[in-house]
Amino acid sequence: MPEEGKKADSDEETESDDVVDEVEEVPLKSRGRQSVSAEAYGEWNVKKAFTPPVIPKTDEQKDRLKACLKSSFMFAPLDDTAFGIIIGAMKEVTVTAGERIITRGDDGEVLYVVEAGSFDCSIPTEDGTGERVVKTCAVGDVFGELALLYAQKRAATVAATEDGVCWSLDRETFNHIVKESAQSKRNQYVDFLAKVPLLETMGSYERSQLADALRVEMVDESATIVLQGDAGDKFYIVEEGFCIALKDGYKVMDYGPGDYFGELALITQQTRAASVVAQRESKLLTIDGATFKRLLDIKDLEERASKYT
Ligand code: CMP
Ligand code: CMP
């Protein structure tokens, strides 16, 4: 596969092509304005005049792509219309072990979502003599989004460590359909996460990945968030509010904004060691167990947990 998936551009089609695809190109509201000068109407109309590409796919490909996007934090929250456009615009890219997909310093025109395989992202070592892997992308992960989000050169080199399959998405469709929501979530939470003591040592890129993965949960005053003895599947950070932990009915901990709980059951694979109850209405950020294990420093958490009485 050539870098940036250029080869496959040749089989791209727009709405004028004969191919009728089941994932219909969803008409954007202002279709009728396509001939209007973008300059005359400003940025807002430029956005609306966009015609997304529709790349023909078999039903089998669409099913695989849907499943792949549903496992991606960046794409799963899209509404049906946006999701349909993305399904139409993405292109399947098969890769072989050792293949380089992105080269650091290049211009970036597409991002990739991993359907199968494993991909190492590398940056030069501090002394400049070699490269070090900063992230390994697995199924559902997105890579190549930074150049599109921030209009910058590729920040890392990405290579397949085994045979795999990715789906690429062009810059224009990404900008029109996904960029705003992806950026606003990152912007909203990256600053907050940087102030969470537990996450201080985390790299800024990992923090942005964590921001993508966060889910918000509002809980009422007196709600039991975690029940001692239950199985654990989530990790919690308090964004707003106040909660307490109770072990065997006795208060053992207070939690305010920036504090976390629910890590023990995920680390030890045991049931919840305490209950956690909201003392007032609270806004919590949750991270599912798999993402927690992938992005957080478990050793650091274990060390902190050993201080529980
Ligand atoms: P982009 O800069 O477009 O292309 C290289 C990709 O590597 C980048 O987007 C990210 O998706 C990915 N990547 C993973 N880890 C890092 C990191 N620590 N710094 C920069 N890029 C990273
Ligand atoms: P977990 O066991 O997953 O769920 C309950 C949480 O309460 C636990 O993780 C810790 O985050 C937190 N906790 C606070 N104090 C204690 C304590 N003394 N013993 C165990 N868990 C505690």
Average predicted confidence as pLDDT: 85
**Proportion of residues in extended strands:** 25-35%
Radius of gyration: 22 Å
Shape: globular
Largest sheet: 4 strands, antiparallel
Q: What does this 3D model show about the protein?
A:
- The protein is an alpha+beta fold.
- It has 9 helices and 16 strands.
- It has helices at residues 38-48, 59-70, 80-89, 146-150, 171-194, 204-213, 264-268, 289-295, 298-305, and strands at 91-95, 100-102, 110-116, 119-124, 131-137, 142-143, 157-160, 164-170, 215-219, 224-226, 234-240, 243-247, 250-255, 260-261, 275-278, 282-288.
- The radius of gyration is 22 Å and the shape is globular.
- The site of one adenosine-3',5'-cyclic-monophosphate (CMP) has 17 residues, from strand 12, strand 13 and helix 7.
Write the layout of secondary structure elements.
Elements: H1 38-48, H2 59-70, H3 80-89, E1 91-95, E2 100-102, E3 110-116, E4 119-124, E5 131-137, E6 142-143, H4 146-150, E7 157-160, E8 164-170, H5 171-194, H6 204-213, E9 215-219, E10 224-226, E11 234-240, E12 243-247, E13 250-255, E14 260-261, H7 264-268, E15 275-278, E16 282-288, H8 289-295, H9 298-305
Antiparallel strand pairs: 1-8, 2-7, 3-6, 3-8, 4-5, 4-7, 9-16, 10-15, 11-14, 11-16, 12-13, 12-15
Helix pairs in contact: 3-5, 5-6
Quickly list its features.
alpha+beta; 4-stranded antiparallel sheet; 9 helices; 16 strands; 26% strand; binds adenosine-3',5'-cyclic-monophosphate
